[in-house]
User: Fold this.
Amino acid sequence: MDLENILDELYELRPQDFTAARNARAAEARKAGERDLAERIKGLRRPTVSAWAGNLLVRREPERIQPLLGLGEGLRSAHRSLDGDRLRELSRQQHLLVAALAREARDLAAAEGQAVGEAALREIEGTLLAVLADPAAAEEWATGHLDRPLTPPVGFTAASADTGAVTSRVTPSGPAGTAQDAGPERRGEAKTAHRDRERRAERDEARRAEEEQARRTERDQARREAEAADEEARESEAEHARAAEESERADARAEEAAERVDALTEELKEARAQLRAAEKEAREARARARTADDAAGSARRRARQASQRAERLTSGRV
Assistant:
Protein backbone atom coordinates (compact mmCIF):
# COMPACT_ATOMS: atom_id res chain seq x y z
CA MET A 1 0.00 0.00 0.00
CA ASP A 2 1.28 3.47 -0.94
CA LEU A 3 0.65 6.33 1.49
CA GLU A 4 0.60 9.00 -1.23
CA ASN A 5 -2.15 7.19 -3.14
CA ILE A 6 -4.11 6.72 0.07
CA LEU A 7 -3.79 10.45 0.84
CA ASP A 8 -5.03 11.30 -2.65
CA GLU A 9 -8.00 9.00 -2.20
CA LEU A 10 -8.97 10.10 1.31
CA TYR A 11 -8.61 13.88 0.89
CA GLU A 12 -10.82 13.87 -2.19
CA LEU A 13 -13.68 12.34 -0.19
CA ARG A 14 -16.30 14.54 1.40
CA PRO A 15 -15.48 15.31 5.05
CA GLN A 16 -18.39 13.22 6.32
CA ASP A 17 -17.07 10.19 4.39
CA PHE A 18 -13.45 10.64 5.48
CA THR A 19 -13.35 8.93 8.88
CA ALA A 20 -14.93 5.62 7.85
CA ALA A 21 -12.69 5.37 4.77
CA ARG A 22 -9.60 6.29 6.81
CA ASN A 23 -10.34 3.64 9.43
CA ALA A 24 -10.96 1.03 6.73
CA ARG A 25 -7.63 1.82 5.07
CA ALA A 26 -5.83 1.67 8.42
CA ALA A 27 -7.41 -1.72 9.10
CA GLU A 28 -6.31 -2.98 5.68
CA ALA A 29 -2.75 -1.85 6.32
CA ARG A 30 -2.74 -3.48 9.76
CA LYS A 31 -4.12 -6.71 8.29
CA ALA A 32 -1.36 -6.62 5.67
CA GLY A 33 1.24 -6.40 8.44
CA GLU A 34 2.13 -2.74 7.76
CA ARG A 35 1.67 -1.46 11.30
CA ASP A 36 3.65 1.78 10.83
CA LEU A 37 1.60 2.67 7.76
CA ALA A 38 -1.58 1.80 9.63
CA GLU A 39 -0.66 4.17 12.46
CA ARG A 40 0.15 6.98 10.01
CA ILE A 41 -3.18 6.50 8.26
CA LYS A 42 -5.05 6.36 11.56
CA GLY A 43 -3.45 9.68 12.55
CA LEU A 44 -4.77 11.55 9.50
CA ARG A 45 -7.18 14.36 10.38
CA ARG A 46 -10.53 14.80 8.73
CA PRO A 47 -10.45 17.98 6.59
CA THR A 48 -12.65 20.94 7.33
CA VAL A 49 -15.14 21.88 4.63
CA SER A 50 -13.01 24.84 3.52
CA ALA A 51 -9.79 22.77 3.37
CA TRP A 52 -11.56 20.02 1.41
CA ALA A 53 -13.02 22.54 -1.06
CA GLY A 54 -9.51 23.98 -1.54
CA ASN A 55 -8.23 20.46 -2.22
CA LEU A 56 -10.96 19.99 -4.83
CA LEU A 57 -9.89 23.19 -6.56
CA VAL A 58 -6.30 21.93 -6.82
CA ARG A 59 -7.38 18.53 -8.14
CA ARG A 60 -10.16 19.54 -10.50
CA GLU A 61 -8.71 22.83 -11.82
CA PRO A 62 -4.90 22.38 -11.83
CA GLU A 63 -4.47 24.84 -14.70
CA ARG A 64 -5.67 27.64 -12.40
CA ILE A 65 -2.75 27.21 -10.00
CA GLN A 66 0.00 28.79 -12.12
CA PRO A 67 -1.73 32.18 -12.65
CA LEU A 68 -2.31 32.39 -8.90
CA LEU A 69 1.32 31.56 -8.14
CA GLY A 70 2.55 34.09 -10.70
CA LEU A 71 0.34 36.75 -9.20
CA GLY A 72 1.72 35.89 -5.77
CA GLU A 73 5.29 36.46 -6.93
CA GLY A 74 4.35 39.86 -8.36
CA LEU A 75 2.49 40.89 -5.21
CA ARG A 76 5.37 39.91 -2.94
CA SER A 77 7.81 41.86 -5.09
CA ALA A 78 5.59 44.97 -5.17
CA HIS A 79 4.97 44.70 -1.45
CA ARG A 80 8.69 44.57 -0.68
CA SER A 81 9.49 47.55 -2.91
CA LEU A 82 6.39 49.55 -1.91
CA ASP A 83 5.65 50.04 -5.61
CA GLY A 84 2.27 51.69 -5.17
CA ASP A 85 1.11 51.66 -8.80
CA ARG A 86 2.18 48.07 -9.31
CA LEU A 87 0.73 46.94 -6.00
CA ARG A 88 -2.56 48.67 -6.72
CA GLU A 89 -2.93 46.90 -10.09
CA LEU A 90 -1.86 43.51 -8.74
CA SER A 91 -4.13 43.91 -5.72
CA ARG A 92 -7.07 44.53 -8.03
CA GLN A 93 -6.18 41.32 -9.87
CA GLN A 94 -5.76 39.57 -6.53
CA HIS A 95 -9.24 40.47 -5.33
CA LEU A 96 -10.81 39.35 -8.60
CA LEU A 97 -8.86 36.10 -8.85
CA VAL A 98 -9.23 35.11 -5.19
CA ALA A 99 -12.97 35.80 -5.22
CA ALA A 100 -13.41 33.87 -8.48
CA LEU A 101 -11.40 30.87 -7.29
CA ALA A 102 -13.19 30.80 -3.93
CA ARG A 103 -16.55 30.76 -5.71
CA GLU A 104 -15.30 28.03 -8.02
CA ALA A 105 -14.22 25.93 -5.03
CA ARG A 106 -17.66 26.47 -3.50
CA ASP A 107 -19.34 25.36 -6.74
CA LEU A 108 -17.14 22.25 -6.96
CA ALA A 109 -18.10 21.36 -3.40
CA ALA A 110 -21.79 21.93 -4.15
CA ALA A 111 -21.53 19.59 -7.14
CA GLU A 112 -20.36 16.92 -4.68
CA GLY A 113 -23.36 17.57 -2.43
CA GLN A 114 -21.48 19.64 0.17
CA ALA A 115 -22.69 23.14 1.01
CA VAL A 116 -20.09 25.84 1.74
CA GLY A 117 -21.23 28.61 4.08
CA GLU A 118 -19.94 32.17 4.24
CA ALA A 119 -17.47 31.40 7.03
CA ALA A 120 -16.00 28.50 5.05
CA LEU A 121 -15.88 30.69 1.93
CA ARG A 122 -13.85 33.29 3.87
CA GLU A 123 -11.47 30.52 4.96
CA ILE A 124 -11.02 29.44 1.35
CA GLU A 125 -10.16 33.02 0.46
CA GLY A 126 -7.70 33.08 3.38
CA THR A 127 -6.04 29.94 2.03
CA LEU A 128 -5.70 31.52 -1.41
CA LEU A 129 -4.21 34.68 0.13
CA ALA A 130 -1.71 32.50 2.01
CA VAL A 131 -0.80 30.84 -1.29
CA LEU A 132 -0.24 34.28 -2.82
CA ALA A 133 1.94 35.39 0.08
CA ASP A 134 4.05 32.32 0.85
CA PRO A 135 5.68 29.85 -1.59
CA ALA A 136 5.75 27.21 1.16
CA ALA A 137 2.00 27.59 1.64
CA ALA A 138 1.53 27.31 -2.12
CA GLU A 139 3.53 24.08 -2.16
CA GLU A 140 1.47 22.66 0.71
CA TRP A 141 -1.78 23.62 -1.00
CA ALA A 142 -0.67 22.05 -4.30
CA THR A 143 -0.52 18.59 -2.67
CA GLY A 144 -4.29 18.60 -2.32
CA HIS A 145 -3.95 17.13 1.19
CA LEU A 146 -4.96 20.10 3.38
CA ASP A 147 -6.93 19.26 6.51
CA ARG A 148 -7.13 22.86 7.76
CA PRO A 149 -7.30 26.21 5.92
CA LEU A 150 -4.05 28.17 5.54
CA THR A 151 -3.50 31.58 7.13
CA PRO A 152 -1.77 34.48 5.30
CA PRO A 153 1.42 35.85 6.92
CA VAL A 154 1.06 38.83 9.23
CA GLY A 155 0.84 42.11 7.31
CA PHE A 156 0.37 40.68 3.84
CA THR A 157 -3.40 40.97 3.67
CA ALA A 158 -3.56 44.46 5.13
CA ALA A 159 -0.81 45.83 2.90
CA SER A 160 -2.30 44.23 -0.18
CA ALA A 161 -5.79 45.51 0.47
CA ASP A 162 -4.88 49.05 1.47
CA THR A 163 -3.39 50.13 -1.85
CA GLY A 164 -4.45 53.73 -1.38
CA ALA A 165 -2.36 54.03 1.78
CA VAL A 166 0.66 52.52 0.05
CA THR A 167 0.26 54.80 -2.94
CA SER A 168 0.11 57.85 -0.71
CA ARG A 169 3.27 56.71 1.05
CA VAL A 170 5.32 56.18 -2.09
CA THR A 171 3.95 59.16 -4.06
CA PRO A 172 3.87 62.08 -1.60
CA SER A 173 2.30 65.31 -2.79
CA GLY A 174 5.16 67.47 -1.52
CA PRO A 175 5.26 70.11 1.25
CA ALA A 176 2.89 73.03 1.08
CA GLY A 177 2.70 76.55 2.38
CA THR A 178 5.88 78.34 3.32
CA ALA A 179 8.08 75.36 2.48
CA GLN A 180 7.24 75.77 -1.20
CA ASP A 181 7.85 79.51 -1.06
CA ALA A 182 11.22 79.18 0.71
CA GLY A 183 14.57 78.97 -1.00
CA PRO A 184 16.13 75.75 -2.35
CA GLU A 185 17.92 74.98 0.91
CA ARG A 186 14.76 75.42 3.02
CA ARG A 187 12.72 73.44 0.54
CA GLY A 188 15.30 70.64 0.67
CA GLU A 189 15.21 70.61 4.45
CA ALA A 190 11.43 70.61 4.40
CA LYS A 191 11.36 67.72 1.95
CA THR A 192 13.83 65.77 4.07
CA ALA A 193 11.78 66.39 7.20
CA HIS A 194 8.63 65.46 5.31
CA ARG A 195 10.19 62.20 4.11
CA ASP A 196 11.36 61.43 7.64
CA ARG A 197 7.84 62.00 8.95
CA GLU A 198 6.42 59.83 6.21
CA ARG A 199 8.88 57.05 6.96
CA ARG A 200 8.00 57.19 10.64
CA ALA A 201 4.32 57.23 9.75
CA GLU A 202 4.85 54.28 7.42
CA ARG A 203 6.67 52.34 10.13
CA ASP A 204 3.97 53.18 12.67
CA GLU A 205 1.23 52.25 10.24
CA ALA A 206 2.98 49.03 9.26
CA ARG A 207 3.49 48.15 12.92
CA ARG A 208 -0.15 48.82 13.73
CA ALA A 209 -1.26 46.83 10.69
CA GLU A 210 0.97 43.93 11.66
CA GLU A 211 -0.24 44.03 15.26
CA GLU A 212 -3.86 44.09 14.14
CA GLN A 213 -3.21 41.31 11.63
CA ALA A 214 -1.43 39.31 14.34
CA ARG A 215 -4.46 39.72 16.60
CA ARG A 216 -6.81 38.68 13.82
CA THR A 217 -4.58 35.74 12.96
CA GLU A 218 -4.42 34.67 16.60
CA ARG A 219 -8.20 34.92 16.92
CA ASP A 220 -8.73 32.99 13.70
CA GLN A 221 -6.21 30.37 14.75
CA ALA A 222 -7.84 30.00 18.16
CA ARG A 223 -11.25 29.68 16.54
CA ARG A 224 -10.00 27.07 14.08
CA GLU A 225 -8.26 25.14 16.84
CA ALA A 226 -11.45 25.20 18.90
CA GLU A 227 -13.47 24.01 15.91
CA ALA A 228 -10.89 21.31 15.20
CA ALA A 229 -10.96 20.19 18.84
CA ASP A 230 -14.77 20.07 18.77
CA GLU A 231 -14.68 18.13 15.54
CA GLU A 232 -12.13 15.66 16.87
CA ALA A 233 -14.18 15.26 20.05
CA ARG A 234 -17.31 14.53 18.01
CA GLU A 235 -15.34 12.09 15.88
CA SER A 236 -13.94 10.37 18.98
CA GLU A 237 -17.41 10.17 20.51
CA ALA A 238 -18.78 8.68 17.30
CA GLU A 239 -15.96 6.14 17.17
CA HIS A 240 -16.54 5.31 20.83
CA ALA A 241 -20.25 4.80 20.16
CA ARG A 242 -19.47 2.56 17.19
CA ALA A 243 -16.94 0.59 19.25
CA ALA A 244 -19.43 0.21 22.12
CA GLU A 245 -22.12 -0.96 19.71
CA GLU A 246 -19.74 -3.45 18.12
CA SER A 247 -18.70 -4.63 21.60
CA GLU A 248 -22.34 -5.22 22.51
CA ARG A 249 -22.88 -7.19 19.31
CA ALA A 250 -19.74 -9.23 20.00
CA ASP A 251 -20.90 -9.92 23.57
CA ALA A 252 -24.28 -11.04 22.25
CA ARG A 253 -22.62 -13.34 19.72
CA ALA A 254 -20.34 -14.75 22.44
CA GLU A 255 -23.31 -15.37 24.74
CA GLU A 256 -25.23 -17.04 21.93
CA ALA A 257 -22.20 -19.21 21.12
CA ALA A 258 -21.81 -20.16 24.80
CA GLU A 259 -25.47 -21.15 24.98
CA ARG A 260 -25.05 -23.22 21.84
CA VAL A 261 -21.96 -24.89 23.30
CA ASP A 262 -23.92 -25.72 26.46
CA ALA A 263 -26.76 -27.16 24.40
CA LEU A 264 -24.38 -29.20 22.27
CA THR A 265 -22.58 -30.40 25.40
CA GLU A 266 -25.89 -31.65 26.83
CA GLU A 267 -26.73 -33.30 23.52
CA LEU A 268 -23.31 -34.94 23.48
CA LYS A 269 -23.77 -36.22 27.03
CA GLU A 270 -27.18 -37.63 26.12
CA ALA A 271 -25.82 -39.19 22.94
CA ARG A 272 -22.97 -40.82 24.88
CA ALA A 273 -25.45 -42.19 27.44
CA GLN A 274 -27.58 -43.58 24.62
CA LEU A 275 -24.45 -45.09 23.06
CA ARG A 276 -23.50 -46.76 26.33
CA ALA A 277 -27.04 -48.13 26.73
CA ALA A 278 -27.06 -49.42 23.16
CA GLU A 279 -23.66 -51.04 23.62
CA LYS A 280 -24.90 -52.70 26.85
CA GLU A 281 -28.01 -53.98 25.08
CA ALA A 282 -25.84 -55.29 22.26
CA ARG A 283 -23.58 -57.11 24.72
CA GLU A 284 -26.58 -58.62 26.51
CA ALA A 285 -28.14 -59.65 23.21
CA ARG A 286 -24.89 -61.29 22.13
CA ALA A 287 -24.73 -63.10 25.49
CA ARG A 288 -28.33 -64.29 25.09
CA ALA A 289 -27.57 -65.38 21.57
CA ARG A 290 -24.57 -67.39 22.74
CA THR A 291 -26.65 -68.98 25.53
CA ALA A 292 -29.42 -69.84 23.09
CA ASP A 293 -26.88 -71.24 20.63
CA ASP A 294 -25.36 -73.36 23.39
CA ALA A 295 -28.81 -74.60 24.40
CA ALA A 296 -29.67 -75.41 20.80
CA GLY A 297 -26.42 -77.34 20.42
CA SER A 298 -27.14 -79.33 23.56
CA ALA A 299 -30.66 -80.08 22.34
CA ARG A 300 -29.34 -81.23 18.99
CA ARG A 301 -26.83 -83.52 20.71
CA ARG A 302 -29.53 -84.98 22.94
CA ALA A 303 -31.75 -85.49 19.94
CA ARG A 304 -29.01 -87.34 18.07
CA GLN A 305 -28.27 -89.48 21.09
CA ALA A 306 -31.94 -90.34 21.50
CA SER A 307 -32.25 -91.16 17.84
CA GLN A 308 -29.21 -93.39 17.95
CA ARG A 309 -30.53 -95.23 21.02
CA ALA A 310 -33.88 -95.72 19.38
CA GLU A 311 -32.22 -97.15 16.32
CA ARG A 312 -30.19 -99.57 18.42
CA LEU A 313 -33.26 -100.75 20.27
CA THR A 314 -35.13 -101.25 17.06
CA SER A 315 -32.28 -103.20 15.56
CA GLY A 316 -32.10 -105.50 18.62
CA ARG A 317 -35.74 -106.46 18.34
CA VAL A 318 -35.34 -107.42 14.79
User: Anything to note?
Assistant: Residues 47-171 form one domain. Residues 84 and 166 are 6 Å apart (CA to CA). Residues 157-182 have pLDDT under 50 and may be disordered.
